[in-house]
Fold each of these.
Amino acid sequence: MSGLIAVSLGNALAFYDLVIFSYFAPQIGRAIFPEGHDGSQLLLSLGTFGVGFLTRPLGAIVIGRIGDRRGRKPAMLLSFALAGLAVLGQALVPPYAVIGLAAPALMILWRLLLGFAIGGEVGASTAFLVEAAPEMRRGLVVSLQFATQDFAVLISGITGFLLASLLSDAQLTAWGWRAAMLVGCAVVPFGLWVRASLSETLHATHPDEPTTPGAERPGYALRITILAFVITASATVANYGLSYLNVYAQTVLKLPVKEAFSATILFGVAAVTFDLVGGLASDRFGRKPVMITGMALLGLSLIPGFWLINAYPRLLMLSAVSFWLSIWNALGPAAAVVGYTEALPKQARASGLGLAYALGVAVFGGTTQLIVAWLSRSVGDPIAPAYYMLAMVLAGIAAMTMLPETAPIRRKRGP
């Protein structure tokens, strides 16, 4: 179990950096990009955030094929090493004032490398966790991956809160965001060491390997991959849309940076807790009931939640809404991912899962915060971002209903 936790902790590095870049987008924009009209540096920063998603499908194909042919372990070592290098590189990019247009160019290159690494990381590490876990605990084990990712959100929120409390805005822009990124680099040596000591699962015989009716039919793996893509896209829009609440609080609600980060901490606490609850519940009640329930309650809460924080733009309301939305946003992902990972044939897991994830995140993760920012500025309705997220949540629920149920407890009971 310690090895499984270590894999998940290593996986959290990339997501820590993603969240840090998102949270510090205003400061990174002012440091890396030239001055322009009001808001242009923020949009350029968010655009650079999105560029990194373009290489995720390539990473899923290249590193995913390594994972399905040579093994999960070499794929995980490669992806993690590349992610650590990219995070370090971003933190060390000189500002625009020093090297001019080379600053955004370098930042884009590091974002592309990080996207490539993450594209290969998710498929290989999730396949490893499913294959290494006991049959009746797969949901819990995979939820550790999500819990550590959201733990990274929590740590990034705490880091941002402390830096915002101790530093001026000028200091945050000059070097505070760099310090936050370097914190994430500390886990790289430990993650590589632990991953190097893991046993390979690709060629291991697993007596509890699930067999899904119809899995031998032509096109079955493609159908599951497409459903996984839609579910991933839906969850991505919800997750990145809610992660943007930090910037939304600063730019739309006009709350101080410190207050915006304090709400992020509660978001992370709820996410870590209910990732694990969702994983446990999916082992006890089945994958589909848990994932559909979480997404449905998130959809029902989005519009009222955005209305409340705009009607009462205070720290207490922002914190309460962030906590509530985070509960339902966290409940379903572990159940969904373990469900379609179990449903995929073993020889196609790392590449199929990685490609579905990478495409879903590349298309929607890289654009969600730009769309939310544009909707907030241009439509004239501060609740407009909730409408976009709700539409994607409904698409995800529809795809979830078409997945086969793979939880052992439900297979043994029957439909």
Amino acid sequence: MHLARDAPPGPARTLRSDAAWVWPVAAMLLIVAFGGYAVFRAAEATHYLADNGRYHYASPFGHPDLTYLAPDLLRGLPILGAALASPGTFLLPVPFALRASCYYYRKIYHRGFFARPGSCAVPARRGRGYKGETGLFAINNLHRFALYVALVALAFNLQDAVLAFATPHGFYLGVGTVVLALKVAFLAFYLLGCHSLRHLLGGGLDAYDCDLAGRTRRRLTAGVTALNARHPLWAWVSLAWVLVADVYIRHLALSGDATFLGLPA
């Protein structure tokens, strides 16, 4: 961060001499682009599985397929029925809720979308006063519950990675297996370094050394803390790698020799 000796007068007064707006705007555009792609994939509602008899890759946007949970009464409705026929409709709320309420992403949203403030040493734009988590952003307090569901989703991602190696056709090693394995690793680094998980494992204790359970919780908390130190890095890398995995699997599913949910593509 570069600070100017003489800040300009007026409402735009700031101590920053560099282009402080670049990263908040870039982060905002990246999130919007990823969200747009995710909505596109949910609307596309196909090409979630690439299986040509050798490899077996499942996209994080379409597995597990929970469309069977939709009531039959709603399936025939014009717009809602089409949405409920897509696995993405059931899966996307989980990462959306997690990342929308994530402690790190909150900074991105406040800076990029609301400019409150735009960056360090940059005053917030005029408008309603900052209310923290007492107004609309009280929903951020649900982050811990989003984490619990996301950990279940991580288990399904791990299953997909295992099945990419130990396919229904036998053992297979290819580009897709590496992509899915890295996807699980990056998601695990992100989720297992979560602030809420850190509090869940180590919070509420007056002392750690009184018994074995306390000492175990201290070691677990230390592991989460080590990952938490790079939480912003894993947040972006995991987000990007989910996109890489889906784009790659969709490409294979469209190549002509793949199958989708057991049916010819």
Amino acid sequence: MKLMTKTLSLAGVALAMAAPALAEPVETEAVIVSVGEGQLNARTRAGPVTVVYSAGTAIKERDGLRRRDRDSKSFIPGLIINVEGDQQGQTITAEEITFKERDWRTAVATQAGTIEQFSELRDAIIDGQEYVIQREVTVYFASGSTSIAAEHQEELRAAAKEASSFGNYRVSILGFADQRGDPAANELLSQRRATAVSNFLRQTGSIEPGRVLSPSAMGEGTVAPGETAPTTDAQARRVVVRIVTPKTQLTR
């Protein structure tokens, strides 16, 4: 009888060891290490986890009290996320994944991101969100021209040489035109001016090409964030170059 009881007891232990652990509700903060199809390899304070998500997972971006719906395209390595769901072993089946807007922008700046993400980062810099201007150069143009004058070439070379000293920098390039003539033609001209400056900076050899954001056409009658509005047509025909870094980066 004792032998049978002992046998049953051992069988119970073996069965318990073989059975998978029950899923438990969890809410945890994690950093994305890599992104796969329908899952994230992430790291928490307790160690590595796999976060599984699906079409039913709520993905939210937080900006202060506001919450916006996002999709899985927002997931990039380096992003800090908050995960709510059920955990079984080292796998979390997510019901909701949230992240802060500023953390997303910092992760994009760090990882360089995709073309789409770069576009959103460029827009954020244009809007003046979460970035510090470390150096600014304004290049002025003759009427109808896209040629960069010699004195401005020297300014751009000096800025390009200094850029790497700012750490995790990006270069924003905004092109403008005066209000004379056709608005559509002026917007195209502002794009050509911005592109000319972008190409010049890349060719200096002092700036990593991947850190130069796509040049943007701002057209006529607009200003860059924090910029004093031009008072003459000569001042309006310009390209504003800004070397910027995330506010979350430690400064010198």
Amino acid sequence: MLFVPGHSVAPTEDGKGATQATSNNYDGFEGLSWAPDGRILFSATRKGLQNIWLTDSEGKQKTQLTDNAGLNTWPSMSPDGGTIVFVSTRDGKQRIWRMDASGNHVQRLTDGQRDTNPILSPDGQWIFYLSLRAQGVSELLKISIDGGSPVSLLNDGLPGSPAISPDGKTLAFTYRKPALGKLKLALLPTDLSAPLKVLETTDVPRRSLVRWTKDGQGIAYVKVGGNISNIWVQPIDGGPPRQLTSFDSELIYNFAFSRDGRLAMSRGHQVNDVVLISSVK
């Protein structure tokens, strides 16, 4: 059984001085991102229902944005603060949707079977996302914020959740080829002006989740040692990875950097229950 006791916020990228913002199970586990004004978007499960919430960084003022229509996860807000894109199963399939910042005017944007992990470009005009086709097969695509036909960026190997650089020119993600191969970090220009670049690193990220550092010079990811995880950074120039946070307990399941260098995290630990099932005659 997994236990994620809410999310916490640190005033700096290294996680020092982190304080608890929410204390509910699974908060931020499937979606945690910053709004331009410093508030935090996150997914939350309440009474078996998964919705998108918006809160201040201290967790004092929370607003529920989606209203119990399917499972709602992975929110990302436009730079002007006016639009949120997210994943929802409200029509029976896992697809990308958009809504305004108040949770109104909901509109479906994609028509895949398992579309997930949307991220908005810095200019707010494009959505980059994954479409899971089959076991061991995924495709990286982009689509206009207004919808339309998606554009395939990568359908080779197994790309992970995309993160876009601060200048909007490069996507970073984990990458496997073949599907059971070693997990690596990869870079791809958003305009496909250069081929896929795979970074050689000895570290294996957790949950295929990566983020760009504020200066755009490194890719941050979660590294696990025992039952403790920390955030590490791989420089895009090929230098050795460096440890960013120094936690001595718990696991990091999701994280995001703000524009001004703060760090939001979904952290917790795992609890395994042993259950004895006896046959009944």
